[in-house]
Design a protein that fits this description.
It contains two helices and six strands; from the N terminus they run βββαββαβ. The protein is an alpha+beta fold and 97 residues long. The protein is globular, with a radius of gyration of 14 Å.
Length: 97
């Protein structure tokens, strides 16, 4: 497949079928931002800078729906992941801290 991706179909009791991407290629944040604009991404084994900003990683899953990304993270049971929103949040977005 192009770009070294393989796909696994996963199913959990709490969600519909969803696709989990496995890539053997690390992507820079610039590449991730260009490819997944306005989506949540699950990044496996993220490489971070001194301020813990993600600079590289392997995208395992992406969606416009945050809850499906959370469910994919639970399904994969990785030791170290990052979940990021790529893009600008809508102006009326509210955050619960």
């Amino acid at each position: 497949m192009a770009m070294g991706f393989s796909i696994e179909l996963a199913k959990t009791p709490s969600c519909d079928n969803f696709l989990i991407m496995e890539t053997d290629r690390e992507m820079s944040m610039e590449e991730i931002e260009a490819q997944f604009e306005s989506e949540w991404v699950l990044i496996a084994d993220p490489k971070t800078d001194d301020q813990l900003n993600v600079v590289r990683g392997r995208v395992r899953y992406h969606s416009k729906d945050r809850s499906s990304v959370d469910q994919a993270a639970i399904r994969m049971r990785s030791k170290r992941d990052a979940i990021l929103y790529i893009g600008e949040f809508p102006e009326d977005t509210q955050f619960l801290l």
